[in-house]
Amino acid sequence: MSAQASLPDYTLLLEELAALPPGEPVACTIRGHSRYQSLELARLLTDRGMVAQPERLEESEELAAAAIQVCAVLTEQALAQQLHGEAIRGIDSVTFRATCLFGNSCRLRGAYDRAERFFLEASHFDGLPADTASFLRGLGLLRWEQGRTQEAIALLSRARELFRDLELTTEAVSTTQLLLLLQAELGQLEAAAELFSSLEPESTVTRPWLSARAALTATFCLVPRPGNEARTALLQGGSFKALVQHDDELALLSWLESRARARLGDLDGVETTLLKLYRHFDKALDIVPAMLVLFDLLALRGADGPNFSGLLKHLTQQRQVEVALTLYRREVDPTAGNLWEQVTSLGAWFRLKLRRAGHPVTYLPFV
Amino acid sequence: MPKDPTRRLPLSAYRTPFSLDLCNPDDIGPDDSPVEEAETPPTDVLRELTSSGSDQQRLLVADPRFHRKDVLQLLLALSKETQLTQPQKAREFASLAAQVAELAMETLPMEAPSALVRAHCLVANAYRLTGLIDLAEDSLGSAFPALGFDPLDDRADRAIYCRTLALVRWEQGRLDEAVALLPHARSLLDDSLHARGRATCSLLEALLQDEIGSPRGVLHPLSQLLGKSILRSCPPWLTSRAFLTFAAVAAKRDPYARAALEEGLHSLGFVTEHKEQLRLFRLEGRARGRLGFTDEAEQLLEAVRREHLETHQVVDLTLATLDLLALRTSTDQDPRIEALYSALTDLPSAEIVGMAVSAIDRFISWVAGDEEPWEAARSAGSWFLRRLRFAGIGPDPIPFA
């Protein structure tokens, strides 16, 4: 193995790899030149891949692939020298992280089968406890996207437990927030409310989009409870939302905020906002949130009678509206006392059916 | 060395008259509310179905005569009963149940979805028991679309699915996922309705936690079960394995270690399947060794090791060898490594022997690096089992059904 060089040299090496001409296979370059065969470089490639992932998936994958290549060469060298223990563990740990990173990237692109293969590959390596927790969380998100919700709950719960044991508070909080969103999506509103109540306050908000989604979703779930928890959550959600800049994410957060306010009884401007959101999602061909917004509009206006037909003239996709109306009328009994729970169940059923049919549903930009 | 007052009999004395009980009575039973008595008993109806060839069966299952709750229940029960002794038959019964359930969704809207999930899980478990892990996973892939998520849906079905999947993941060497799934399965079971199901999940979880090296994970679920009557209705092999493991892990740190040893030995007395007895004797040897009963431990582990050597059971031999090495090293005895090595390397199954030798090398290297011998043996054993699973060549499946 090459002797450890100082960090700036690794940065240069990374830039060299990034600057290779498009046709030049990175794997061959790494194998052919010993200066690239270093664990520090593999770590740097993986770290850079994590930073790139939210916005630049292709770059993230290239970096992860390069890290995996470096580790493969180092493993061969270690085995040839019959090294054990720490030497191999260090390489395995980086391989594990890089493979999970690639898997998560595939999930973000909707390539779930490919993601599955990378997570399976990762499961053969031993990582540090924090890496294991991240692996379980990443796999849990994939299971969620696949509609395998029981596994998702199990994996996210275990990841949360591990992060807590390791006192990695920020990661534990993020994992709790993800679990909350999943439970709420499945209509398990009380479980979601409990998770929110168990959350420790965040000293640093590292994922404002997630904190906002969690707080606004929790608001909806907390409404039946006496006291001010729901309103407090709504205010929190609003302040996290103010930190978000991405348009699509803001639209989703506005939807969560609107339905939370509707359930709280703050109806002022809610319908107007929901109509605007429907048009936004419809224009972007984002059918799933469009349908979910329609369900909420139906709950507000009632599915029958003149109230809803007045609404129809604002909605462009007639077929979509008809489907939403049919489903709503079949599944929701407006005379029963729990209208919003029923609408949530309808949304849950709808999303699960789509997930299990292999359609991406809600974008989970978690890295 | 303190002598254990619970006097240890020689191996040959353990040919007990107790009946074999590897089988697990249905611990998360389906709804057993009374079924309206039909004109034709379900056994007669079933005979017609099971005595036909597979092509004929495919036509027959579409017949509404077979779309009955009692027929479904009988098929599932037969599959469960035959899982360990005739897994191929178990698969056939469960596959039939799955076919009937699929076609009876409208006729039996309450029973068919649950039966479908359970049937696929039984197929998966039967595949797992015969080492066909990929097919086990595929069968579970057929189960999960039928799973509900509504809080009012049958959580027991979800528990069965998660537990079955946990066992498949365990056999695949994907221990981190298995460790996530078992507690979740347990949490889905109602305390009052499914106490036995919860207990079996805890027992399995403890064994898994031992394999991943988490003492707390072993002690926590089992300390709540120790001395509880529910254990009498759990499979004796499982109770014995779990509590002998508890005794080893708890040895120097928990006042209940001795009670756990007694619990483990009590259940061992009900196991007559010889291969399982040998596994339990090894665990007993490990527990006694860690509790300080060195002579008894040496005697047991050496006897188990010799028996595995004679029958060329490389996997179990390796685990016994590691425990014997840990015992001798921790009590400053000569480990006699060369003799143990050469016994292994003389065996056939080059691939498994190669991994076994690597496991022992790891033990030696870790102990040389000041790792505690018993922990080094556990880690090396766990590494060995994981490598076997990744390579798809063993160990024997966990005999849970």
Describe the protein's architecture and organization.
The complex is a heterodimer of chains A (367) and B (401). In chain A, 72% of the residues lie in helices and 0% in strands. Chain A contains 18 helices and no strands. Chain A is mainly α and 367 residues long. The longest helix of chain A is centred in the N-terminal third of the chain and has 24 residues, at 57-80. Chain B has helices at residues 42-50, 54-60, 69-82, 87-103, 112-129, 133-143, 155-171, 175-187, 195-212, 215-223, 236-250, 257-268, 274-291, 294-310, 314-330, 337-345, 350-368, 373-391. Chain B has 18 helices and no strands. Mean pLDDT of chain B is 87; it is low at 1-22. In chain B, 65% of the residues lie in helices and 0% in strands. Chain B is an all-alpha fold. Chain A binds chain B through residues 84-85, 123-124, 132, 135-136, 139, 147-151, 153-155, 157-159, 186-188, 345, 348, 352, 356, and chain B through 144-145, 147, 149-151, 158, 161-162, 165, 173-174, 176-177, 179-181, 183-185, 361-362, 365-366, 369, 390.
